[in-house]
Design brief:
Elements lengths: L4 H7 L13 H9 L13 H11 L5 E6 L2 E6 L16 E7 L8 H10 L2 E4 L2 E4 L2 E5 L5 H14 L4 E5 L3 H9 L7 E5 L4 H10 L3 E4 L4 H13 L5 E4 L5 H17 L9 E4 L10 H11 L4 E4 L4 H14 L13 E4 L9 E5 L2 H14 L3 E6 L6 H6 L5 H11 L9 E4 L7 H8 L2 E4 L7 H9 L1
Parallel strand pairs: 3-6, 3-12, 6-7, 7-8, 8-9, 9-10, 10-11, 11-12, 14-15, 16-17
Antiparallel strand pairs: 1-2, 4-5, 13-15
The structure holds iron/sulfur cluster (SF4).
């Protein structure tokens, strides 16, 4: 829990020596409480105070990074129970579970990893994908586990890995085959947490912690943190979807509302629903736990329609409600290869506006130019009302797009909702301003009626 300025003041030397640049220790404490200054500016603070203040300033849920280089994601680090209170910071990872009992080489592992690699989708201008492959040592055979891991490494070198075995030697060998992948290893439990923690620490890996209930998991994480290791992911899997949801909610509440450190870590859920034809159970589990409050959701099979639904849901939940989703403000060519006779349309850089207009221009079968104006992600009417979609800004965007040297005509199509600006826009740009349809659905008819 965050300390107040007075709480911090009580821990400072109270000599008012001014070495920190503040006239008094109290002034320094107040600045520290609002994060306007860092603690190291006071040279006389004791080690004990440093530790207290550092631990008090840590977020209630630890952020853990998995993977490395360009192939990494951070999970956890959330500060609110509900997205509308502020935002969720680190999107939930998704992935599949593979058993090392599956045939290798060239068999089932290969098929499933190939399908996993295709779980990449383009949605509202963003590339979204499944990230994790969890490999479980069901066979108890070191050779089978390593063979399966090698196959995964060969076929999907950019996936994030979760390696699950009760055999420390098998995990050690597996980790020695990986270079800078920073996987998650486990499961650590009451019986093996010491060796698992040492293994994870030595190999720069995250550690999956499990237990029969939340009390047992909390007891294990406490012991692991006492060993000085905190790169922990809590495994809250439960065959009963209700119990699992309940535990995920309790963990989030305890961490945020009670600042309960032993459960202040990101979470993972392995959906145990069996996959069958037309079976939506895995998707139901996945979607439920993405919504509340898993940091990683693993489902049994790489089924594209399930993942499309899950990553779409994730994209919506983890979009910052304070920041509209935007597209780059620039000139777009749409519907083929527009030329110097093609129509020129104008719109705003609100992503939903763009992705509503784009397919309608394609539907018109008339290749067109679309000048997207930077309106800070506001839609047409909102941007106009906020004076972010003005004739001046449109003229500026047209200049940046160099559209006057791209087309030989001087006709500009504006959205029907901002017909009111046509006179001034004509005056400022020197272009004939055509007022287009109000709704995107009217674009094909409008374009065909005026341009063919
Ligand atoms: S340097 Fe430390 S002891 Fe001196 S005034 Fe600042 S906070 Fe107080």
């Amino acid at each position: 829990m965050a300390l107040t300025g007075l709480d911090i003041y009580k821990l400072l030397p109270k000599t008012n020596c001014k070495k920190c640049g503040f006239p008094t220790c109290l002034a320094f404490a107040m600045a520290l409480a609002t994060k306007k200054v860092s603690l190291d500016k006071c040279p006389d603070v004791t080690e004990e105070t440093k530790q207290i203040l550092e631990s008090a300033s840590e977020p209630p849920i630890r952020t853990v990074t998995i993977g490395s280089g360009e192939n990494k994601i951070s999970i956890g680090g959330e500060t609110v129970l509900f997205r509308h209170e502020k935002t969720f910071y680190h999107k939930c990872g998704t992935g599949i579970l593979l058993s090392d009992n599956l045939s290798v080489p060239g068999g089932e592992i290969k098929n499933k990893v190939s399908l996993f690699n295709k779980l990449v989708f383009d949605r509202v201008g963003q590339k979204v994908r499944a990230e994790f492959i969890a490999l479980k040592n069901d066979s108890d055979s070191e050779t089978k586990f390593i063979d399966a891991l090698n196959e995964i490494n060969t076929l999907s070198s950019d996936s994030l890995l979760i390696l699950l075995s009760n055999n420390i030697t098998t995990l050690e060998k597996a980790l020695s085959t990986l270079k800078d992948r920073r996987p998650v290893v486990g499961p650590a439990n009451t019986g093996n947490y010491e060796s698992m923690t040492n293994l994870a620490r030595t190999n720069n890996a995250g550690l999956l912690v499990t237990g029969k209930d939340l009390d047992e998991i909390a007891a294990v994480t406490q012991k692991i943190t006492d060993m000085g290791f905190r790169e922990i992911v809590l495994d809250l899997s439960n065959p009963d979807i209700n119990s699992c949801l309940e535990n995920l909610t309790q963990v989030r509440r305890l961490a945020l509302r009670k600042n309960y450190r032993p459960l202040g870590y990101p979470t993972i859920v392995f959906c145990s629903a069996k996959q069958g034809e037309n079976n939506c159970d895995a998707l139901t589990c996945g979607a439920t736990f993405i919504a509340k409050y898993a940091s990683i959701v693993i489902v049994p099979e790489p089924v594209d329609w399930q993942f499309l639904a899950m990553v779409t849901l994730r994209q919506n939940i983890y979009a910052d409600p304070q920041k509209p989703v935007t597209v780059q403000p620039k000139l777009y060519s749409i519907g083929g290869t527009p030329d110097n006779k093609s129509p020129v349309l104008i719109t705003t850089n609100f992503s939903l506006t763009y992705f509503t207009i784009e397919p309608e221009i394609i539907n018109s079968k008339i290749p067109s130019w679309l000048v997207v104006v930077d309106t800070d992600g506001l839609s047409v009417l909102t941007a106009w009302a906020a004076e972010k979609f003005t004739p001046e800004k449109i003229v500026d965007a047209m200049k940046k797009a160099n559209i006057e040297n791209i087309v030989e005509h001087r006709k500009l199509i504006i959205p029907g909702y901002v017909a009111v600006m046509s006179g001034k826009l004509n005056e400022l740009s020197g272009w004939e301003v055509l007022v287009g349809s109000r709704e995107a659905s009217g674009i094909p008819k409008f374009l065909r009626s005026i341009w063919l």
